[in-house]
Please model this.
Amino acid sequence: MKLLLIFIGMLTWSCDPFVTQFEDSEDAVPYTASAVNIPIDSPSELNVMTWNIRFGAGRIPWFGDSCGDRVILSENEVLGNLQPIIDFINIKNPDILLLQEVDVSSKRTGYLDQVQWILDHTNFNYGVYASMWKADFIPSDGLGKVDAGNAILSKWPIENAERIQLPLRGDQDNLEQYFYLRRNILKSKIKISDEKELYALCTHTTAFATDDTKQKHIDKFYEVLESFGDDDIFVAGGDLNALTSAYVGDNRDFCTVDKCDDDVCDDDFGNNLIYQGSYFNHLPDEELLLEQLYTFYPAIDKSLTHISENYTHSTWITSEPYIDLNGDSLHVEGDNGPLNRKLDYIFSSDPLSDGMTHLAPFNLSDHTPVSATLVLP
Model:
């Protein structure tokens, strides 16, 4: 208790905050690849991909999300996990990439700037970054310095990029909230040619909140998308941490799936229980949260989101799947994993084609990527 009081006193009296506070709207951080390759001058279509890459931790049992005990990873471990991620990205060769959980200067990942590293090892030329967790020091479990957030990578120049703050969680005390994530929407304007431009947006909404924060995050995402003019073209996506109505009806007990061995878990999905170490928290009526987003064009139709081929999230239940990294095939017997729900989405102002969930790289993160093609007018 004495150490805690001393720490709180230091926090109160310090001139410089440990944790970066953000404005409601501010410029995102720009990036350029070390070698810029000139892309097609005026393409007729663009392939867009979204992927939560779990800060290059792969399947390492990190303490914060998988009932593990690892806190700090070596740079070699991180590079070993990032290499197959960029190998897969280079195989699929998207034109625009929406990334979540990217570290740029974090002790847990060897202080590697992952945005710059991915830019320099793929076909992208430009990027922007918006931190959702930026602190000189996080006291929990020796985590230390953290800078993690969302990024958008593009083959074409990004003219403007804005970080839009999302509401903070309302179910935390002041001290916990001070050190916690500040989630955001990253909005960028990409200049394809003198005649063509579009907006790309990336977000990562709350996973663990037990109040109405998830609803507020998705409402804000919808509000930003709805604000575009009739002639504006946009693609938007990310890890929305929300289920669709097509899947909620299956009565899966997510507590049983997500809990750690010592968690209390005595109720089915839907009762909004809180579990120590639980991977994340679903809410009553969660199936209604994304309805408004389906007024735009989705990469995967909502009626197909209950099909296992479109699941994007993986818990830590193991099985022996057949994998073909080049062919995107993944076969698992039964419903116990490694993929068991859809949380990652792409929406657009204009119709999307070739919407696809890439199952093969399930072991490179706890999420798999989703992609779709946008035909430019």
Summary: The domain at 30-375 is CATH 3.60.10.10 (Deoxyribonuclease I; Chain A). The radius of gyration is 20 Å. The first strand starts at residue 25 and ends at 27.
